[in-house]
Design brief:
Layout: H1 7-21, E1 32-36, H2 43-54, E2 59-62, H3 73-92, E3 98-101, H4 103-107, H5 118-132, E4 153-157, E5 173-177, H6 182-192, H7 200-209, H8 215-225, H9 227-237, H10 242-246, H11 263-283, H12 285-289, H13 291-295, H14 325-338, H15 344-355, E6 359-365, H16 367-371, E7 376-380, H17 386-399, E8 404-411, E9 416-424
Parallel strand pairs: 1-4, 1-5, 2-3, 3-4
Antiparallel strand pairs: 6-7, 6-8, 8-9
Helix pairs in contact: 1-2, 3-5, 6-7, 6-8, 8-11, 14-15
Length: 428
């Protein structure tokens, strides 16, 4: 195989699969191995390479199969595929595994807008039941006393925190966070361009040039190089005739010569792809289109509190200025914010979020994760008092002074982010 397999990846999978086929005395072996990490880092492809190297033909389920219009169908499918894998061992006489791709996409719950169906509950419950009783997996409405062969389960996903917590506990699922290091990235990218006559130095330069990109970026980059030849082919045939030329045609599909894979050309195409990514992150049109749905009632529709005046028979009487509780709270807020070390812009943003009754959160990201939109939380901030909020914000900024830090305002009623503002950028 020309493709690269990470030693850490193959070690983790091989140990987990082999351990599930051994009878270890007084050792409880987790049945499920959960491989999670950033999007596009090659989790599924690395699994397929390991399966091929170990001579395993897995039974595969996609996360998209874990929902159905009929309640109970996905749970039944899991049991059927598990029993199918067990039967394969008897027939073929070699290892087999159940491979569930993108489990969190089919059985996870991302936010309040994600519907939590009966099938989602049954899928989680079924996986828990199989993990606890791997040799006794029955189909609904029938019972077979013959014990099944234990089948290791491999699942992939991006964020396992969206799954049902008891499913991912230790003892049922062993977790493996996959983030390729520089050596892994050079090896994987070298396998992608194996037949394109790129030197090791070119591969290293390309990886370092786009160090913040996921693995799938380089695969898409190689595919884009062929666009020039395909464009020439379309112009040569004619755009009106391209359909008849490629579909139900007696002529064979043309063979394209080796494209231009020199390093400067790859960098140029890669920068174009990076600019497209950046444009998507900057536009964020969904916020504009869904603003009315997210905010519910607009700011202009909110009613101002009625103001009452003191009426007395004596026209010469002037009422003293009375400080209301809201005004007192606002004065305290202004005093506490002005006494902090934060910039005036950040202070105003915090004041606005608190006055709007939103919950405050903080997130940070280094240069690489910022470009891919992968943020980490600074921890929960309780809006118990303005001083506590300001202190928490200052602590987060101090702990991550070399990272991007953004301030978040969350509406607790609809569980939506109403404010996202970057308040710190790393010094160049």
């Amino acid at each position: 195989m020309p493709y690269y397999i990470s030693p850490r990846f193959i070690d983790k999978l091989a140990v987990h699969i082999t351990k599930n086929f051994l009878d270890l005395p007084r050792v409880r072996v987790p049945l499920i191995l959960g491989i999670h990490g950033r999007k596009g880092e090659g989790k599924t492809f690395q699994c397929q390479l390991v399966f091929e190297k170990m001579g395993i033909e897995p039974v595969t389920i996609s996360g998209g199969e874990l929902e159905s219009k009929d309640a109970g169908d996905p749970a039944r499918l899991l049991r059927l595929r598990y029993r199918e894998a067990s039967e394969k061992i008897k027939v073929q006489g070699r290892m087999c595994a159940l491979f569930i791709n993108d489990l969190d996409a089919g059985a996870g719950r991302f936010d309040a807008g994600t519907q939590y169906t009966v099938n989602t509950q049954l899928v989680n419950a079924t996986l828990m039941n199989i993990a606890d009783n791997p040799t006794n997996v029955q189909l609904p409405g029938s019972y077979d006393e013959t014990p099944l062969h234990r089948i290791p389960i491999i699942v992939t996903g991006n964020d396992f925190s969206t799954l049902y917590a008891p499913l991912i506990r230790d003892g049922r699922m062993e977790k493996f966070y996959w983030e390729p290091n520089r050596e892994d990235r050079i090896g994987i990218v070298g396998g992608i361009f194996k037949t394109d006559q790129l030197s090791v130095g070119d591969i290293e330069s390309l990886v370092d040039e786009f160090s913040d990109q996921a693995i799938d970026f380089f695969s898409a980059l190689r595919s884009r190089i062929y666009d020039e030849q395909i464009r020439d082919f379309i112009h040569q045939v004619g755009i009106e005739k391209i359909s008849r030329r490629l579909v139900n045609s007696t002529e064979k599909i043309p063979d394209f010569p080796q494209p231009n894979f020199n390093l400067s050309h790859l960098r140029e195409c890669g920068k174009i792809m990076v600019r497209e990514q950046q444009r998507i992150r900057e536009l964020r049109l969904v916020e504009e289109y869904n603003k009315s749905r997210l905010f519910g009632v607009s700011q202009t529709q909110r009613k101002e509190p009625e103001k009452f005046t003191l009426n007395t028979p004596n026209s010469n009487y002037s009422s003293p200025e009375v400080t209301t509780p809201n005004q007192l709270r606002e004065n305290q807020l202004n005093h506490s914010i002005e006494s902090s070390n934060l910039s005036s812009e950040v202070r105003k943003e915090i004041q606005k979020i608190i006055q709007d009754g939103l919950k405050i959160g903080m997130e940070y990201a280094d240069k690489r994760r910022y470009k891919t939109g992968s943020w980490n939380s600074c921890g929960k901030i309780e809006n118990e008092g303005e001083k506590e909020v300001i202190s928490a914000v200052e602590n987060c900024l101090a702990e991550h002074e070399n990272d991007y830090v953004r301030l978040i305002g969350i509406d607790g009623n609809i569980k939506r982010r109403m404010v996202e503002k970057i308040i710190q950028r790393p010094k160049i």
